[in-house]
Request: fold
Amino acid sequence: MQCYTELTPPTAVTHSLTLQFVPSQGTNLVVAKTSLLQIFRTKIVSVELETPDSAIGRTRTSTRHDNRPANDDYGLEASLAGDGLAARTDRANTARLVLVAEFSLPGTITGLARIKAPRKSSGSDALLVAFRDARLSLVEWDAEQHTLSTVSIHYYEQDELQGSPWAAPLSHHVNFLAADPSSRCAALRFGPRNLAILPFKQPDEDIDMGDWDAELDGPRPSKDLSSAVINGTSNIEETPYSPSFVLRLSNLDPTLLHPVHLAFLHEYREPTFGILSSTKAASNSLGRKDHFSYMVFTLDLQQKASTTILSVGGLPQDLFRVVPLPAPVGGALLVGVNELIHIDQSGKPNGVAVNPLAKQSTSFGLVDQSHLNIRLEGCMIEAITAESGELIVILDDGRVALVTFRVDGRTVSGLEVKLLPPDAGGFSLPCRVTSLTRIGRSVMFAGCEEGDSLLFGWVRGQGQTARRKSRAQDLDLDLDLDEEDIDDVDDVDDDDLYGEESVTKQQTALPTVAKNGELSFRFHDRLFSLAPIQSMTYGQPSWLSNSEDERNSAGTYNDLQLVSAVGRGKSSSLAVMNLAIQPKVIGRFDFPEARGFWTVFAKKPVSKSLQGDKGNAIRSDYDTSGQHDKFMIVAKVDLDGYGTSDVYALTSAGFESLAGTEFEPAAGLTVEAGTMGKDNRIIQVLKSEVRCYDGDLGLSQILPMLDEETGAEPRVNSASISDPYLLLIRDDSSAYIAQIDKNNELEEVEKEDRVLSTTKWLTGCLYNDTGGVFAEQTAFKGAKPQESIIMFLLSAAGALHMYRLPDLKKPVYVAEGLSYIPPGLSADYSARKGTAKEAVSEILVADLGDTTYKSPHLILRHRNDDLTIYRPFRVRRDSAQDFSKTLFFQKLPNFSFAKPPVEISQDDTTDPPRFLPMRRCSNISGYSTVFLPGPSPSFILKSATSMPRIVGLQGSPVQAMSSFHTEGCENGFIYADTHGIARVARIPSDCSYAETGVSVKKITIGEDIGAVTYHPPSQSYVVGCNLTEPFELPRDDDYHKEWARETLTTFKPTLEKGVLKLVTPVTWSVIDTVEMEPCETILCVETLNLEVSESTNERRQLIAVGTARSKGEDLPTRGHVYVFDVADVIPEPGRPETNRKLKLIAKEDIPRGAVTALSEVGTQGLMLVAQGQKCMVRGLKEDGSLLPVAFMDMSCYVTSVKELPGTGLCLMSDAFKGVWFTGYTEEPYKMILFGKSSTKLEVLNADFLPDGRELFIVASDPEGHIHILQFDPEHPKSLQGHLLLHRTTFNAGAHIPTSSKLLPITQPTSSIEARAANSSEPPQQAHALLMASPTGVLAALRPLSEAAYRRLSSLAAQLTTSLPHPAGLNPKGHRLPSVSCPPSGVDAGVGRNIVDGVVLQRFIELGTGRRGEIAGRAGYGSAAEVRAELEGVLGWAGMGYF
Reply:
């Protein structure tokens, strides 16, 4: 069988919501990405003002500290300039999103609803989540566990709720969730006409005696709790909800036969909802018109009954949504395709037509605004201001319109729609919006399924009486921030700080100015997206021949890169993906002796003449945190194995040797280096001593490692520097702590705690707690800097000790169980006796994040270089609680495995392996990160909107690394690999890493991409795009003379037109374009190895393009097959990459049907063309025609054709009639049908998956099912192979595989040799199937051996029952096929299923004890065996060539 693994998380945003979810964080934004639930908070940062276009294209913005001049070497100019330099820069406060937590759910989210504070104890809102197949989960935030807490689960999948036996299953209906604005109840519409009502208790509600009257009925009796106590524990638990019930819409009103949409309304004492429905199904072809009705019902939750309040009939049949409006407007806005209709609480309608088609589609009275010519399909509407009721409308094409109401008292007399052009303060979103949520008073989140989701804000233009600095109003975001975010804006300009109050007063005094002001929009932030993935290919990286980039990049790029067509509309892009970071190399040097790098910046010593008050003022005023590095200390090992150290001066181009200083190279190998004493001293830690230098590398102090009591001279193993403290861990497992005084002299700190002296310490580090995460509760803002240094020590017994320096009397926190790697670590955690411990070789506490937000994380490095990341959080129950009781550590998911070290022969010339500590880097291309050296060089990267990800560095193992910040390499790094090559490089800023865990570079194309392919001879990509253009009737038609008199000139329908583009990977720009005929759409583009000469049998790789030409439903669809070559031409001046063009070789007209799929076939250079209802083999002739030689009749519409390379075995899938498995022979030319699947199977994509001598067929249907079929003519049920065997069906949920690539799996040499030794047959190439989905998920399907399948299936079953699952969902049930799934073939699966890799990867979440226990239950000898097997099936295993 196989194992299914998701390689990237879903990125398509389907739903969003704001609520008070996490305590003390203000308003949270909850975002649903099909099966991923993310919780964000907002943060204010100060950025430079920029245009909306440039704001969209930027991924990270420099912070307010990056304004220092580049040539101000020592900060003197900046200090003398004071704040004037920053004041001259036009800056603005911008709202950014910060990820709080994310949860992968085994289900597909179909709705979100806010439930206001159902429990008094929590004080926060609850979240109601709706899933596919009528399920609801009520969740709250568990502050003590820092995770979701499931309050209740509600299922409405019972058979008695399905209706008649012939009714469609639940999966064929769209479930819709709505909640009452006052949180009195929620409603889930599921099935054709079912409405589930879930009531919620109110604070003053008593379910038992809701109508008790004390005056009439006497005193209220107390509850009898005697029967509710069992074994001293109460079994009565107060729930925030009452029992739910299901209403039939036809029971509410007999006319509710075809419900369209419903929503709960504002300003009603009882839960009241408006529903849009009809007694007849909507149809344009039957001439039906104005048969919709809008009805308002009020619910009696106690009696489970309803009452009709009002009903409005005769509404247009193109209405599709009900938008409830709060006061002062009230009522509801009905949204149609061509109109907007408002119905107030009395049933009075007011409508407006927004295009000319409204007059033809309805007779309802509408105000004519047809000159707007806008379409409302797929639009999203949200209120801009609650006071005036003004609404923002984002259209399907991204344009923005405003809806305003004319209110006379409490009556709405009309509404007006205004389209905002870009030159009038408006803006346009690049793609269609699926959710629109207002976060603050002037900030809104637009979630997108077809591109990046955007956070944008707006300000109103002000008159002469407004403030002079109007940008302060732009900064007034009113986001309901928490205390941490408020502290972040304390140091912005005064106008920004006090802008909120002044603007609020102005709007109160002058409401007419605010109402009539023009809106100006600006983008604030974005959420990265890969959705939808339309097509995939892979190619080789390319540079200009003999260029400097080509020479510098040698050894830093991989063989292949995965290129996907993602997004739609203006968001359409090419996403270039690599598994590891491909650094941008600035300089490349041979440096074989380098074993360590440390770059430092130190202040020059002030002369005695300036050491007075003025000199001290100069010293203390300017900050050096952003200055360029000046020196680099290098640890070296010569050919004789002798360790030395040297110092170099850094230049803009690289570094050069420095002479004439007191730096002594022969002192030994450097262990650590840095600066202390406010950058006045350079510290060099050697094995036997610590040396201090001034800013000119003059030796000022030597601190030897000598124990005065015993006379021993322990040697230093590791060191950590955090001004003004120094921590050394020595080879006798002792810790040495030193502090630098005001005279810049290092002195040892007395160890007052006896534990410090007697405990054996394995590793430790210092951390500067600038954010106050580890601060005492009594700590206040502006505390002394030395009190924020935290020392972390790991004892040999596996206990974590924390000291708040300089206090060494006792630790402030002790956690005994760190070596057990528990999911949650606390001071009182204890493991069972006999539990195995993990071998931890290093701990490091470092800030991870970007320029927007960073936070501390505890990183554990295991002996095999695997990493475990913990995130600290605080839980304060009361002010008097001890610090150790408030600090907790939560293990974060990390699914990457370290590579094993490369075995090298031990000879005399090879120096012994050294332990290479992790490096903490404060700014590498905007990231606060940690670098892991060794066999698996990796960065731990985290953005403000993602979790920490471990992303590898492309190339050989790294043995030395340091940050490198010079004028020629801003915020870069330098590293040396095991081949003796040192590189100065940067992390490319145009790529995204932390969002998906891989390197992704998006190149905007701006037009819908249907297909992409790579042309190896020219090293270029060919992209098939489709753009929309107005459709015009043919004026020369002989049968329709009236078409020549067409009068529709402004509101024409649109059709797609294909455009073929040639893209060079050198600059990722379009160098050639070929347009198709009008109304001709590109459906497929493939690179095929075709025979171009019948006489010489010459083969050439050419570009084949399949198109469809459709001019309407009344005309037949035709197609074309184009064959292009990429020819060399003379490039344009100054653009050497434009040396290639597309050249048409052949064109074949297909009179019947579209060309939907192309593939190579056979061994003679022919192509397989899916044209209409036939699959035909064609050969390229020298006259430019395509000669048909064989064919196979199909049924309806061919979605894909594939050939197992070089075998003639072909696979064809039909959109409605299943899969055909055929064979192609060349003597004679013939196609033979081998086997078929069920004819009821709808197939979107099909592909081969060979496994040794077995051949499997993988097919996916529109509901997300992955069907595994097999051709086995020896099986008795297959009727000698005529019927394909159905092995299993796996439910991928919303991640429907719409495209796939069969890829080879590379295996370690050791495993190949071991398999060859145990088998007499030669090893066969293993394969994996890479699948892409519209949600942005890349998944892999790998075949498993029988033994591995049994073990992994048992492991998945153990994990399913042992782990808690968010929202109370069932992962096993989620993967089962739905009831409506048709059989895909003859059932021969014997109860087997595909192993769920999403469940397997959660094995890493367990602690050491639980890992060993579950590994034993699953049949493994140890947890190490589980890790070894998971390493081969999870993630991108075997695809290291990307």
